[in-house]
Amino acid sequence: MEKTIEHPQLGTITLRKRRGLKRISIRVDIKERVILSMPYSVATSAGLNFISAKLEWIQKSIITIRSKKNEHPTLTIGDGYKTRSHTLILVPETRKNIRAVITTEAILFHYPEGASLETEAMQHSLKSAIVKTLTLEAKALIPSKVSATALQHGLRYNNVSVKNIHSRWGSCSSKNNLNFSIYLVLLPESLIQYVILHELCHTVQKNHGSEFWKLLDIHCGGNAKLLAKEMKKYTTRIF
């Protein structure tokens, strides 16, 4: 069951009741929505009491998310937008169809002359073209960079893949398969290298305990914590 509730201080809250849940939880998503999840059998009043107890934390979370969005505003896609190695070039045409052509250096976006780029359909097509371009760039860059980095640092992995994922920059499976987000190619070189080393170190240390950070710090020249802090300035959610 899902419904919305008006809170005097937080505004609209999304309430989700689910069978199988064992406890009440709250999260604030990227859109600043407060989402209250709770067991189906628990009274709504109990959830509201929980929100009251966590009100200060919720308000601080909203402020943090808002400040991060100000640091990384929603992407305005337009002529001249750049990925790692491609420039978006808008090509208005008399034809009514929309198509994107990706060359070695450009994304040629053909669209009907006079059409607004702000419509949902146009934005979807633009974003799809950019995601496709980032995927091509990531597949061309990351596997070879992982291979070279692993060889240089004496670390081993099984397979490497790149995917259109927003939840994390990279991951390492129990079988030492490495996965990386396509948005990694938008980071500075030093941070791309850091993320790769981070996941390679997980082939040795599977958790984020003290031994993992010691290992990562060795391979990062003593700058692991500094680089981890720098990573917080970036997001996979470019639009």
Characterization of the model:
With 239 residues, the protein is of the alpha/beta class. The protein has two domains: 2-71, no CATH class; 87-231, Metalloproteases ("zincins"), catalytic domain (Zincin-like). Helices cover 38% and strands 22% of the residues. It has six helices and ten strands, in the order ββββααβββαβββααα. It has a four-stranded mixed sheet. The protein has a three-stranded mixed sheet with strand order 5-7-6, with helices on one face. Strands 8-10-9 form a three-stranded mixed sheet, with helices on one face. Strand 3 (25-28) and strand 4 (34-39) form a beta hairpin. The protein is flat and about 60 Å long.
Number of domains: 2
Spans of at least 5 consecutive residues with low confidence: none
Please give the order of strands in the largest beta sheet: 1-2-4-3
Estimated radius of gyration: 22 Å
Estimate what percentage of residues fall within beta strands: 15-25%
**Helices and strands: which structural class?**
alpha/beta
The averaged pLDDT comes out at 89
Count helical runs: 6
CATH class of the largest domain: Alpha Beta
So what's the oligomer here?
single chain
Helix content: 25-40%
Number of strands: 10
CA-based shape: flat
Span between termini: 29 Å
Write the layout of secondary structure elements.
Layout (H helix, E strand, L loop, with lengths): L1 E6 L3 E8 L6 E4 L5 E6 L4 H10 L1 H17 L15 E7 L5 E4 L3 E7 L7 H34 L6 E4 L6 E3 L5 E4 L7 H13 L8 H10 L4 H8 L8
Parallel strand pairs: 2-4, 5-7, 8-10
Antiparallel strand pairs: 1-2, 3-4, 6-7, 9-10
